[in-house]
Amino acid sequence: MNKISKLFQIKYPIIQAGMVWASGWRLASAVSNAGGLGLIGAGSMHPAVLRNHIKKFKKASNKPFGVNIPLFYPQLDEIISIIIEEKVPIVFTSAGSPRLWTSILKENDIKVVQVVSSVNFALKSQDAGVDAIVAEGFEAGGHNGREETTTMTLIPMVKAEIDLPIIAAGGIATGGAMLAAIALGADGVQVGSRFVASNEASSHPSFKQEVVRAVEGSTVLTLKEITPVRMLKNSFFQKINSLYQKGTDVEELKLVLGKGRAKRGMFEGDLEEGELEIGQISGLINDILPAAQIVKNLIDEYNQALRLLKRI
What is the span of the domain harbouring residue 264? Predict the structure, then answer.
């Protein structure tokens, strides 16, 4: 059995990313029921909302699942307590040091996976005792690393330095990309943008359609002075871009960004003034599908690509 499949006790080494405003219990349970690992994205949930999603997942599926936690979350103590109380089996952590919570989670028989964007952070995460690493290239949507290392470069670099199972993320929406990541040393893949364009994603239908309309060059990595984020170009992005051209400072960028931009765009459907977080791979996403079909397509395409390579 594949290392990731064995670690999480799942059929396929496919993890649905815990994306803000998209990854509720419906999407997570659909992916888990299809043989992958569904993640509930806690980054856009108040603690009580997260508990509700966990309970609803358990009613919809008896398969393994996890919760993704950004470690800068303001109510982190409460979130961790809920995860322990609800016996969540797997936690993916990101945007912070895993040293603070990994040991506590593991003491409660919870597997811990840290999302990293560099070899340096992968090594620190391994030292902190995590069970696996998500190595995410800067093609990925949403908050990202400042290094701008691509997935296909990052995976072999991390593989050369750590002994833990590696999950590739960033720019993966097809079985061919999954095969390429595994050929470079990954043990599984994390898929985000492709699952945003699914029936079960909790993101706004207008945002899903905007993802489908995306083409090459529709996304950009920006706001590095605050927190790097990849998003679709829209009126909000043009405001940010104009500030950069004027040589603005960080405080003015923060003022224009304000609060709730991602919710406004991704959950409420404001395509002009919202922050529309999505990956470069959106240029290859042309339809909205059931999550189970997306999992099936990934496996079918993976096997087809593998057969083609064997002919060479």
Answer: 215-281
Number of domains in the chain: 2
The string of pLDDT tens digits covering residues 191-238 is 999 999 999 999 999 999 999 999 999 998 888 877 788 999 999 989
- Are residues 154 and 234 located together in one domain of the fold? no
State both tokens at 116: 């990293």
What CA–CA distances, in Å, run from 98 to 72, 109, 227? 11, 16, 18
Instruction: Give tens-digit pLDDT for 21-30.
Output: 899 999 999 9
Please tell me whether residues 176 and 227 are part of one structural domain.
no
Looking at the structure, do residues 247 and 102 belong to the same domain, yes or no?
A: no
Write the pLDDT tens digit of every residue in 43-73: 888 999 999 999 999 999 999 999 999 887 7
Strand order in the sheet with 188-191: 14-16, 188-191, 166-169, 132-136, 111-116, 90-94, 65-70, 38-41
- What is this structure's pTM? 0.93
Do 151 and 173 sit in the same domain of this protein? Answer: yes
d(CA 206, CA 297): 24
Same domain, 237 and 98: no
Report the alpha-carbon distance of residue 153 to residue 181 in Å, rounded: 10
Task: Return the closest-CA partner of residue 216 out of 232, 239, 236.
Answer: 232
Give the residue from 189, 155, 156, 200 showing the smallest Cα distance to 12.
189
Question: What pLDDT does residue 1 have?
Answer: 65
> H or E element: which one contains 135?
strand 132-136
